[in-house]
Amino acid sequence: MKFYFSVLLLISSLTLFAQNETTKDTIQEMETELDVLVLEKKKKAVERKADRTIFDFSEQAYLNSGSLLEGLKKLPGLIVSDVAGMLYQGKQLQVYMDGRPLNIYSNELNAYLEGMPANAIEKVEVITHPGAEFPATSGGAIINIITSKKAQKYLSATYSNGYSFTDYDKSRHRFNNSLMLSAANKWFSWQIQGGQSYTESYSKSNFYDNDIVLSENYSDKVNRFYYVKSGLKFDFKKDRLLINYDINTNNNSSYIEAGGLGFVADDKSKSKYFYHDVTLTYQKRFEDPFTKLDFRFNFNDNNSDFDLNSRITDNAILNNNSNQNFYQFTTDYSQEINFLEKTKISAGAMADLLDFETISFDTKNLDYTRSSLSAYTEAQATYKKFEFIVGGRLESYDISGETDTSDLIPFRQTRFFPNGTVQYNIMPQVNINANYNKKIRLPDTGSLNPNNTSYQNPNVGFFGNPNLEPTIYNNYEVQFNAFEYFFIGYSVTDANNQIINRIISTPDGAASISENLDEVTIHNFNFGIPVPYMLFTKGLSETLKLDFNPDEINFLYIYAGNQKHVISGVDTKSVWNINLMSQLILPKKIKFIANYNTSNTGGNYYYYMVKRPLYQQLDLTFSRKFLSDNLSVSLYVNDILNTNKQEFGIVDTDLLYNNKYDSRRVGFSLSYKIPSKNKLVKEEANILSRDKQQEENKIGN
User: Fold this and answer.
1) pLDDT value at position 164?
2) What pLDDT, in 10s, does the model give residues 179-204?
3) H-helix segments, 272-354
4) What is the DSSP string of 670-685?
5) What separation, in Å, do the N-terminal and C-terminal C-alpha atoms of the chain show?
6) Do residues 95 and 102 lie in contact, with contact meaning Cβ atoms separated by under 8 Å?
7) Most CB atoms within 10 A, among 130, 362, 407, 570?
8) Bridge-partner residues for 642, per DSSP?
9) 179 Cβ partners below 8 Å, 6+ apart?
């Protein structure tokens, strides 16, 4: 009986969540003055395509109530940690912002994600197997964070803010504000989005060696983050020119009390980041709406200063700076041709240059230059119930540099990177697909930086490695999808020269370093399934008669993922990650969401042994919309049970590391879309982001 009930539950869950799909494209507004029908597709909390998963942040209060980093940690299958980095279903993520590589890493990336308020985010795309149109240096996968909302003709505005506090040993506060304005006239349209966040936080971490305390750190942090994103769009008949300029800055400070074997310290660190990005995009359009030609130039600059001073001796311990300049030019062409039933071909080229230098106490200890040239072609075709994507990318690299003591080993190589996807559509919205791609990951500047930009004391240090070599990946994946809500998948990644972070024993204690791992194979299994609660109250037959929006009912979503790293000479075990998300619609249209994440213990992430669940946390969120849905308000409690604490053993050492931060937090968030009195206001494409890949990649829809 249990087996039959499970089968019925699965089938009915998928059937119920499939209902109403055909009615989601509804007419939202009739503009009688212009005699135009505006069609708006109903937003889904999660949208699954053949090559990516899209998470809607704008309408999900449990994701957008805190910082962007807090929201990302709640996504099923996504792991963000100090030791594992940022992974999705076992794949290392390259971070993009609005369709462009962000090019910041390590502590700077964490500070950026923690500073950016989640209620300024529209959606997050996780591109699990990027096609040939993406640089092969994307590695295993890409996370593309879309910050911009849709533009509005005539002046419109949206204001968002949030506040939260924690009471770990004293009250600490966080608040953020952001404003988005957009308008259009007969010459051009524009958007501007700006905001700030202020964050107080507390954390403690410990290093042990055979029960000997090497280092016990208590950190009180204050982060100040400011950002502006702007866009201009000029229309020239069918063509258009987009100009985007982004700027953000961090000004952070920490007070660290530390002690351990043979030392006591009381230090203050200050870190300042300044980042700006400018992009020019010219989009050439033709009589055939399926023929497109784009040209884009992108430049971004990132300056970082990190100082660590002793408050006991008033001496400077660290004075480390870095400067990074990135230039990129790309061109993309696509058109449809008469081959099979429907075929689209794409081609393009790219050239980029990265200059990176680091300075410690006025001594330049790394001067690093990397340039690459590439070209790609890709075809997408449909034939009966099959859909195909086949492509290839040729890339050439020239990497050189020097430290203050020696030259780096140059890397000059040309490689070909194929990719292919085949999908069989069993029935509408039910399919199975298989994918293969070959990728490369070049060392990021955070891993290359020889300077310590985290913290150090006499027993513990953190260092990069300027001599890291690129990683080559072979990624294989097969996945079954049903009605976008149910999926089950398995992937294998074979990596050579995998770049990892590792803690090692040193004569003085311990050090965190970056190094190449000769070979590693990563196995990943994951699945997700929704279970409507009405199955248990109305029964199967009555529930099947109902018509509803699956994102507006009471349900439980279950996600489980298993990941195993196979490393020669190391007895590794797999790690299960579990995510449970429950939604209840309460009286007065109040939406209640409980989100719980946990993992098992005893597994491995590379050389780290998981002693406590990697991310164990229960979050509760209440939200409601007011004023004709223009005002969204949410109240939340994160980590209500205060269980989020990490602890790791280190393979081949007696070292033990644990960390705890003030993850239990109470707060509120609101977003107010200021209504326009102009009846001609209507939505048009946003101009803060470049979303070509999503619009054109139709496979799996």
Assistant:
1) 96
2) 999 888 888 889 999 999 999 999 99
3) none
4) EEEEE--S-TT--EE-
5) 36
6) yes
7) 130
8) none
9) 157, 158, 159, 160, 193, 194, 195
Q: Which of these ranges, 11-25, 272-286, 363-377, 402-416, has the smallest mean pLDDT?
A: 11-25
- Alpha-carbon distance values, 492 to 443, 565, 599 (Å): 22, 10, 21
Cβ-contact 320, 359 below 8 angstroms: yes
Report percent pLDDT > 70 for the chain: 88
For 86-135, the pLDDT digits (tens) are 888 878 889 999 888 888 888 888 889 999 999 889 999 999 888 899 99
Residue 12 CA from chain centroid, whole number: 32
User: With 60 as the cut, is the pLDDT of residue 697 above it?
Assistant: no
Residue whose C-alpha is closest to residue 109's, from 129, 82, 134, 130: 82
Q: Is residue 620 part of a domain?
A: yes
Q: What is the mean pLDDT of residues 526-549?
A: 78
Dist. CA 638–CA 652, nearest whole Å: 36
Q: Is 591 exposed, middle or buried (0-12, 13-18, 19+ CB in 10 A)?
A: buried
Distance between CA atoms of residues 518 and 497, nearest Å: 5
Q: What 3-state class would DSSP assign to 612?
A: coil
241 contacts 234 by C-beta, under 8 angstroms = yes
d(CA 130, CA 73): 22
Among 340, 334, 338, 336, smallest CA distance to 293 is for 334
Q: Is residue 229 part of a domain?
A: yes
pLDDT band of residue 546 (cuts 50, 70, 90) is low
Q: What is the mean pLDDT of residues 665-688?
A: 74
User: What per-residue confidence (pLDDT) applies to 231?
Assistant: 92
| Span 270-297, average pLDDT | 95
Does 537 reside within a domain?
yes
Report which of 177, 247, 168, 262 is spatially closest to residue 212, judged by C-alpha positions: 262
Would you say residue 701 lies in a domain?
no
Q: By the 8 A CB rule, do 17 and 535 touch?
A: no
Nearest to 322 by CA among 500, 447, 221, 461: 447
Residue 30's pLDDT is 31
Q: Can you give the pLDDT at residue 39?
A: 40
The answer to whether the beta carbons of residues 546 and 534 sit under 8 Å apart is yes
What backbone torsions phi and psi does residue 114 show, to the nearest 5 degrees? -75, -30
Question: How is residue 375 written in tokens?
Answer: 């070209």
Domain that holds residue 663: 2-696
Q: What is the bridge-based pairing of β-strands 509-532 and 555-566?
A: antiparallel
- Burial of residue 349 (CB within 10 Å: 0-12, 13-18, 19+) is middle
Of 235, 101, 185, nearest to 690 by C-alpha is 101
Q: What DSSP string runs through 343-380? A: EEEEEEEEEEEEEEEEEETTEEEEEEEEEEEEEEEEEE
- What value does the mean pLDDT of the chain take? 87
Q: Which amino acid is at 524?
A: N
pLDDT of 408 reads: 95
> Which CATH number belongs to the domain containing residue 211 in this structure?
2.40.170.20
Encoding tokens for residue 629? 């849905």
